[in-house]
Amino acid sequence: MEAREKELKFLATEGKVIIPFFQRTYVWKKENWENLLEGLFSKPYGHFLGSIILKQIPVPSGEPKKLEVVDGQQRLTTLSILIKVLYDLFFPELHKTTEIVMRQILFSKPYETSSEYFVKIEHSQVDKEAYERVITANLDGKPSIDINTIKIDEDDDNENKGKSHRIAQCYKFFYEKLRTEHSEKERESLFNKILDPNNKMLVVIDIVEGKDDEQAIFDTLNTAGVRLTTAEIVKNALYQKIIEKSGRENAIKFYKNTWEKTFLSDEETVRYWEREKLTGRLKRDNLEILFHSVAIIKVFFDPDKHTLSYLSKLYKERIQELGKEELEKFVNEIIDYAKIYRDKFPDFDKSTSFTFEDSVTRLFHILEELEISTFHPFILYIFKKFGNSEEEIKNILANLERFIVRRMIARQETKNYNKYCKEFIKDPNSILEKLKETTDEDISNGL
After folding, report:
1. Would residue 254 count as lying in a domain?
2. pLDDT digits (tens, 9 = 90+) for 220-231
3. Where among 226, 259, 277 does a domain terminate?
4. Model pLDDT, residue 215
5. SS3 letters for the chain?
6. Residue 143 falls within a domain, yes or no?
7. I need a surface site. Which of 78, 111, 136, 397 has the fewest CB within 10 A?
8. What is the pTM of this model?
């Protein structure tokens, strides 16, 4: 492993820079873009922007270099978009003098004498199209970006949240900010500052495949940095382990047929899994609720002993115990539960309507109104276990509804619901015994 202070222009000497298939999608938002831009304008040369970890990928002799980004892709992606925005805003005479360096930073060629250029940073499927559209805009006959069609997410704008790809939003934010609040001279100065060989604002850590423990380095840096979501940590641990057990090519194939197909197939799917719900006092996205539920069902997360902050750690411990076949089975189980969750767990808003006879939706609505998410793992388990018996599912969930409503009317505590959820997963019929504990007299006293 080798760590060096570098300027962004180091990219000019690199070939293809690949974002691994299992890494998180582009998630930076307005606050991150504002902080980056403010720091670049107000801080002196050498202002530290963060670290980037790169791993050399072996290539046949004579082929251009290939690097894999182990960490820092959010920062690298954002800086490259900023460079492109600055270039796009320059007057035509500046285009002539800056095009060569812009292409060196943002594009690569298959070989030196080639007239073809390819986008240097290669994103995975969900971000690839949006990123390449931004980087190639107005070049070599490619269309420009229509800023007016891009909607930037605001924290209080839930209705339009996620309508435009985050990469397109980043481009629009920089474009409008730099065009309206900064002069041509200031934009030119910023371009020069970012690419100045003496402005070493990044620490680039080069690691060697097979020699350096990239997972340990990644975990160490991310413990102190921006918090990764549970799903991102689990995904990274899962597919790194699958690479170890099955090789990279098999792991990529398996990833595309499992994780990518289920969680990243299109922008609507990504938005669904990122959508937050109120669970008790916490806001959690659908993906974290799913992973929490699966961990309880598989009995390696005990809600009576563990807090949510331990969820990713417990997943990583579980993953380390699994062999090749067990790993693949575990991933497929997660995928099965994910399909059930998306298909069966409804989202409620003021316009949601359903009939009283729709007992399953009625149960979910009761849980939503009472702000109870404790029984999600049990409900998920029941849908999977009795998937071929709709009548069985309805009967069990009707018992759960009676259990919850009777206790609510009797004004009984909910603090033991974690314990009851575990018991019900172990034996769904135990709900009937628990139902008896709330007597008609308890209900009368509660009214």
Report:
1. no
2. 555 444 456 788
3. 226
4. 56
5. CEEEEECHHHHHHCCEEECCCCCCCCCCCHHHHHHHHHHHHHCCCCCCCEEEEEEEECCCCCCCCEEEEEECHHHHHHHHHHHHHHHHHCCHHHHHHHHHHHHHHHEECCCCCCCCCEECEECCHHHHHHHHHHHHCCCCCCCCCCHHHCCCCCCCCCCCCCCCCHHHHHHHHHHHHHHHHCCHHHHHHHHHHHHCCCCCCEEEEEEECCCCCHHHHHHHHHHHCCCCCHHHHHHHHHHHHHHHHHCHHHHHHHHHHHHHHHHCCCHHHHHHHHCEEEECCEEEEHHHHHHHHHHHHCCCCCCCCCCHHHHHHHHHHHHHHCCHHHHHHHHHHHHHHHHHHHHHCCCCCCCCCCCCCCHHHHHHHHHHHCCCCCCHHHHHHHHHHCCCCHHHHHHHHHHHHHHHHHHHHCCCCCCCHHHHHHHHHHCCCHHHHHHHCCCHHHHHHHC
6. yes
7. 111
8. 0.70
